[in-house]
Structure formats: structure tokens, C-alpha cells
Specification:
This protein is mainly alpha-helical and 164 residues long. Helices cover 71% and strands 0% of the residues.
């Protein structure tokens, strides 16, 4: 099923976060000497985009989803993910993550995004009327208006390495 145009801004942010997750996965195991560079990039993405993204989902999308009783357990899982991820982003910003913590953050963030895209977004598109989706889209646009699109240029430490 194609993504409803009203959810595309969130999906675009998901794509940028997934790109970071893929680079972390491919760089693993991460050298201790590269952790600071990864943490700086993670902090930049969180500050520029993910923080506002989580707020938009929690203030707009999740309440809309909770109107459908069958989606409440999924929303509760997603809120729990947000709590865990926020705590990890804070640890990263404080420089308190080891290489394996960076990988765990990427794995959990990737799984969370896929859960939203494949389950929540799909189910909302199936259940909400076009008018409801449009109203939700307007609210999401307003909630995301101050977030920056993260165009993060990898450093030497965080760029993908060619296969040897």
C-alpha cells in the first residue's frame, strides 16, 4: 500500500534516521576511537529532527490512533520505545555510550521505525477516512514546522567504508 501523503513527512524523517542506523550497522563493531564521532552525529539528528518527530507522533498521531481500540496496545509499545530511545539519546549526548550501546540504539530505532511504518501507518490508512487523514496531516505539518531536516554529512569515522 502506498503511503498516504499526510504521513509522508514522518516517513521522510524515518528514512533519514534509518540511513544512520544502516551506517551504524555496517560500521559495527564500532571502534572505541570512533564513538565520539558517532555520538555527535546521533545527537545532531536527535536535536534537529527526532525530538520534534517524537513530539508530533505523541501529540498528534498517537491520540488519533488511540481512537481505534485495537491500536492502543501498539501505541503503548511505541510510546515505550520513545521513552527508551529518548533515554539513550540523552546518554549519547552526555558521552556515556560504549560502542555496543551505539549499536543497540541503532537496532532499537530501526525496529521502532519499521513498526510504525509497517503496522501503525498501514492500519491508520486502512481505518481513517480521507478527511481524518487530511486533518491529521495538517496537525502534523504544524507540529513539525520547526524541525530541521537533518542533512548530516558523515565524518571520516562515520562514513561507510568500501569493502576491502
Amino acid at each position: 500500500m502506498l503511503r498516504d501523503k499526510n504521513l509522508i513527512p514522518l516517513s521522510h524523517q524515518h528514512q533519514r534516521a534509518l540511513a544512520l542506523c544502516v551506517r551504524i550497522e555496517r560500521a559495527s563493531p564500532i571502534a572505541q576511537s570512533d564513538v565520539a564521532a558517532w555520538l555527535a552525529e546521533i545527537a545532531q539528528l536527535f536535536k534537529g529532527e527526532i525530538r520534534a518527530h517524537f513530539a508530533a507522533e505523541e501529540d498528534v498521531l498517537f491520540p488519533a490512533a488511540c481512537r481505534f481500540v485495537e491500536l492502543i496496545p501498539l501505541v503503548e509499545e511505541l510510546v515505550s520505545d520513545h521513552e527508551w530511545l529518548r533515554a539513550q539519546f540523552e546518554r549519547g549526548a552526555a558521552g556515556m555510550m560504549a560502542p555496543e550501546d551505539v549499536r543497540a540504539l541503532a537496532d532499537r530505532l530501526s525496529a521502532h521505525i519499521r513498526k510504525e511504518e509497517r503496522q501503525l501507518f498501514q492500519r491508520l490508512q486502512e481505518r481513517m477516512s480521507p478527511e481524518e487523514m487530511a486533518g491529521t496531516g495538517r496537525k502534523l505539518d504544524e507540529a513539525l514546522k520547526d524541525s530541521r531536516q537533518a542533512c548530516i554529512l558523515p565524518t571520516q569515522a562515520t562514513s561507510l567504508k568500501s569493502a576491502r
